[in-house]
Design goal:
heterodimer, A: alpha/beta, Rossmann fold, four-stranded parallel beta sheet, about 20% strand
């Protein structure tokens, strides 16, 4: 009798054949055990398949860094962005912006650190957070602790940036968010948190300024009614606050008659658009992410709505929206952090370098703030003259990137850690054309106001 | 709001119900027969949208025709998935953790295949129908795309109802829904019926995905927002009933649409009325799900059946 049965047939045979059972009982029990074995076998098989599936999924979702090893002449910078999930597209663009800056810095020999007396190249450790805020925070923690990164960049979208932001002060490691513009993050007194996006509230303010300039030019009348429908996030709240701040200082220009919020990823906007219609507003302002912008604008047009001016906050000129709605996006204006139409030489050089690096055009604003975040970090490390994280933090507070590709051509952080530079207003024109229409010194075309009825 | 505006919203709610019914019917069929909560349904919706997108982009095939082509293709795909994965699941009268995990894992695999093949861009299908609407006077507008989706959803339900009641396969499905053990005793081949059912459920998911691609932009993450609503609809409809799906979809769509435009009464030092803010609209399905599970666990269809039987 073998101590172990190599197969369950043997197991069944052992118990059945050696026990004090009748022939019929043996046959029945053997049959039962065989069925049990088959169930066990199928369960095992299922478990194996399940395990393989989960491993496959896990492998696909989890992007481990290519090489965590750091040589003596490199500095480790952590980058945590979503390259899968709902924010994967902006995350990918921001990753490309950061990697272009790293390549340019490394090609130029690296960053000079005075206290060490030599130049260091940048070693990037990248993690994909899959647009999951919990994962995002834990990956930043990992970069700051296990990987001992001297600084971390990332956090596209306010939700992910908010989750990441708590780690910076906990690990006393400088963290620059390249994609979270809500002011809430920077109102908590964090000392190691920085942001290369101008506050979202400024989009609302700049949009109001732009509309106000159209009133001053006589293109729009004074006292127009405004309906605002924004996403139910800090982003949407800041947008409304920014707009209201301007209108409260400039009485008589606009009258906000509707202010509603909607949940991200909504499937239907019929009822909210009916309210917009009933508000008899002259101007329709929204603040939405790309999928909601496409769905809402599609339903807006299907409902035959028309306003003198229309905006979706920071959304408007995206190629995907124009592919989805064709001429339906014409004349929409947007307040954005960057445009490839900016007339600065460094912005044009960035666009050319980006295309050479990635193989595709820089057709949205996402990459530019990430590119400059990496450059200002490199400048701060050089200014700090050491690899001490607190010294780098202090240098970041004073840093000023004078050849910034962003509007205003200067990037520096205000006292709360958030950058503050002007927005540009773009307006979609027929035949897939996009013009910068505000401010005047960066304008590539005249604003169309009021917009023609389709 | 005027009566005409309410009528306009009612029409839009019914059209939305068509969208909801189209996306939920496949999940209901699979749940009814196999007691599997098919979380991969969202992945099949996503693949359906991309299938139609590819046909439209590469071969200029109209997305409606693309949706029809998706039916047999996804039927075969569903049978393949069943043969490779689902048939190994242990039999049960109730949804098991194993089936939930398997289908969730498979959803993740489908999504990541989507990212690998199509990248992470938001895609959409733009046709002459996309922005056009039928206008009845100044107040009522009916989007043509939604009309098409509604008609397709009704077509699906009718076909399914005919299959359910007029075919051998349908009788096998109903037998398995009512009592799987008794069905096997009287000779119903549960493996074969389950395979065909999973194929049918996947076919409807692919079909619905192709139609939804005409209404929304989509990425490999597409489908997940619809999953909760599908749950609500099948719970509301009675978990195993095709007509219940239609009823569940209509109730959900009407409540979602009107909850933000009809003043709701509330009491605080006297009676007041106020609108539900649109940002609270997603609460409606959750509240509905809880209420139905507590008050009428067999769903609306179950409640009506009981009343009819009593009468």
């Amino acid at each position: 009798m073998a101590p172990f049965c190599s197969t369950s047939h043997q197991c069944a045979g052992f118990f059945v054949n050696s026990g004090p059972l009748s022939a019929v009982g043996r046959r029945l029990l053997k049959g039962e055990l065989m069925r049990t074995h088959r169930n066990f076998a199928s369960t095992s098989c299922y478990r194996t398949i399940l395990l393989v599936l989960l491993l496959l999924a896990g492998t696909a979702l989890y992007s481990a860094p290519a090489a965590a090893a750091v040589a003596d002449d490199t500095i480790t910078i952590g980058v945590v962005l979503p390259t899968t999930g709902s924010e994967s597209k902006p995350g990918q663009y921001q990753k490309e912006g950061i990697e272009l800056a790293i390549k340019q810095i490394n090609d130029a020999g690296g960053i000079m650190v005075k206290s060490k007396g030599k130049k260091y190249k940048i070693n990037e450790i990248f993690y994909d957070d899959s647009t999951d805020s919990k994962k995002s925070a834990s990956l930043v923690e990992r970069a700051m602790s296990s990987d001992n990164a001297i600084a971390v960049l990332g956090g596209y979208s306010t939700a992910l940036g908010t989750a990441e932001s708590v780690m910076a002060d906990r690990y006393k490691t400088p963290w620059i968010t390249t994609g979270a513009g809500a002011t809430a993050i920077f109102g908590k007194g964090y000392q190691y948190a920085f942001g290369s996006l101008s506050p979202v509230a400024l989009i609302g303010t700049t949009s109001a300024e732009f509309l106000g300039s159209l009133v001053d030019q006589g293109k729009l009348k004074k006292g127009l009614k405004v309906a605002m429908v924004v996403e139910n996030t800090d982003h949407g709240t800041d947008y409304v606050n920014g707009f209201n701040e301007w209108t409260s200082k400039h009485k008589g220009y606009f009258d906000v008659v509707m202010n509603e919020k909607f949940e991200l990823g909504a499937t239907d906007f019929s009822s909210i658009l009916q309210k917009v219609k009933n508000s008899h507003a002259d101007i329709f302002l929204s603040d939405a992410h790309l999928p909601d912008y496409i769905t809402m604008q599609r339903q807006y047009l299907q409902n035959g709505l028309h306003h003198q001016m229309i905006s979706y906050g920071a959304r408007g000129p995206e190629v995907n929206a124009r592919q989805a709605l064709g001429a339906g996006t014409d004349y929409i204006f947007a307040g954005i952090w960057w445009s490839n139409k900016l007339p600065y030489p460094q912005a044009k050089k960035f666009a050319t370098d980006y295309k050479a690096f990635t193989g595709h055009d820089v057709d949205s604003w996402y990459a530019a703030p990430a590119y400059d975040a990496m450059r200002i970090l490199a400048q701060a490390i050089e200014k700090a003259g050491s690899l001490d994280k607190t010294a780098i933090r202090d240098a970041l507070k004073k840093a000023e990137l004078k050849d910034s590709v962003l509007p205003g051509q200067k990037l520096k952080f205000s006292a709360n850690g958030q950058a503050e530079y002007p927005f540009v207003i773009t307006q979609n024109k027929p035949d897939n054309k996009v013009d910068i229409v505000y401010p005047k010194d960066a304008a590539t075309g005249d604003p169309v106001a009021p917009i023609p009825n389709r | 709001m005027s009566a005409v505006e309410y009528l306009d919203l009612l029409i839009k709610a019914l059209l939305l119900a068509g969208v909801y019914a189209a996306m939920a019917v496949g999940m209901t069929v699979v749940y009814g027969v196999m007691k599997i909560v098919n979380l991969a349904h969202a992945g099949f919706l996503m693949l359906g949208a991309y299938f139609s997108f590819e046909l439209f982009n590469r071969f200029h095939i109209d997305p409606v025709l693309g949706a029809v082509i998706a039916l047999p293709v996804f039927f075969l795909f569903g049978m393949l998935v069943h043969w490779v994965l689902v048939r190994w699941l242990p039999k049960s009268d109730t949804p098991t953790l194993a089936s939930l995990l398997l289908m969730f894992g498979f959803l993740l695999v489908l999504q990541n295949v989507g990212y690998a093949v199509w990248g992470n861009d938001d895609q959409s299908i733009f046709t002459p129908l996309t922005l056009s609407a039928v206008h009845l006077g100044d107040e009522i507008s009916i989007p043509k795309v939604n009309l098409v989706v509604f008609a397709a959803a009704v077509f699906c339900m009718v076909v399914l109802q005919i299959v359910f009641h007029r075919s051998w396969f349908g009788r096998s499905m109903r037998a398995l829904i009512q009592n799987p053990y008794a069905a096997q005793i009287v000779g119903v081949d549960d493996q074969r019926t389950s395979r065909l059912t999973f194929g049918l459920g996947t076919a409807f998911a692919g079909f619905a995905g192709a139609l939804l691609g005409m209404l929304y932009s989509f990425s490999p993450d597409f489908g997940r927002p619809f999953l909760l609503r599908s749950f609500v609809i099948i719970v509301l409809g009675g978990l195993e009933s095709v007509s219940g799906v239609a009823l569940g979809a209509i109730v959900l769509a009407i409540l979602e649409t009107f909850s933000t435009v009809i003043p709701l009464p509330w009491y605080w030092h006297g009676w007041h009325t106020s609108y539900l803010p649109p940002s609270y609209q997603p609460v409606v399905p959750f509240v509905l799900l809880v209420l139905v599970l507590v008050i009428m666990p067999k769903g609306l269809a179950g409640m009506f059946n009981r009343k009819w039987k009593t009468a």
